[in-house]
Write a structure and sequence with these properties.
Strands 2-1-3 form a 3-stranded mixed β-sheet. The protein is 54% helix and 8% strand. The protein is elongated, with a radius of gyration of 22 Å. Essential component of the SCF (SKP1-CUL1-F-box protein) E3 ubiquitin ligase complexes, which mediate the ubiquitination and subsequent proteasomal degradation of target proteins.
């Protein structure tokens, strides 16, 4: 089987296995770089040559890759996103301005309508796996949850405890009066 059509087995922190096409796995720059290193021989030592031949004879055309920082439910969501976007072209990853200016794709917006814990875990997984378009979409959704809200509304939304005394809060408001929209 050609390297491009190879299956990749992603193993979550709980040990659950997810078989995906290599193209899907390569939406993650972390996994893509690992696979490229694996193919170039950088991750094999000379003693592995015989093992590789045996694997080919057995028909073993899968590469197993642990994803130790990602729970199964989150990895499943990330894979769902990658499958949907397998042929998508995203703004150049090095061009921060175009990435920041790009609106959240309607499908991504609907996909990210999950509970806050799952949203945060998807963002963390996208960061760990180096999937910038998913990371950007997740962060934009969180930013939209904050935009136009008062500090108290933000605290309620994200279950943040206000650790300022009323006196400290009043002092901070006085110091930052100039920044208030009036």
């Amino acid at each position: 089987m050609s390297k491009e059509n190879q299956n990749v087995v992603l193993v979550s922190v709980e040990g659950e296995r997810f078989v995906v096409d290599r193209k899907i796995a390569e939406r993650s720059l972390l996994l893509k770089n690992y696979l490229q290193d694996l193919n170039s021989g950088d991750l094999h030592d000379d003693n592995d040559a015989d093992d590789d031949e045996d694997d080919e004879e057995d028909g073993d055309d899968e590469i197993v890759m642990p994803v130790p920082n990602v729970r199964s439910s989150v990895l499943q969501k990330v894979i769902e996103w990658a499958v949907h976007h397998k042929d998508s072209n995203f703004p150049d990853e090095d061009d921060d301005d175009s990435r920041k200016a790009a609106p959240v794709d309607p499908w991504d917006r609907e996909f990210l309508k999950v509970d806050q814990e799952m949203l945060y875990e998807i963002i963390l997984a996208a960061n760990y796996l180096n999937i910038k378009p998913l990371l950007d979409a997740g962060c934009k959704v969180v930013a939209e949850m904050i935009r136009g809200r008062t500090p108290e509304e933000i605290r309620r939304t994200f279950n943040i405890v206000n650790d300022f005394t009323p006196e400290e809060e009043a002092a901070i408001r006085r110091e930052n009066e100039w920044a208030e929209d009036r």
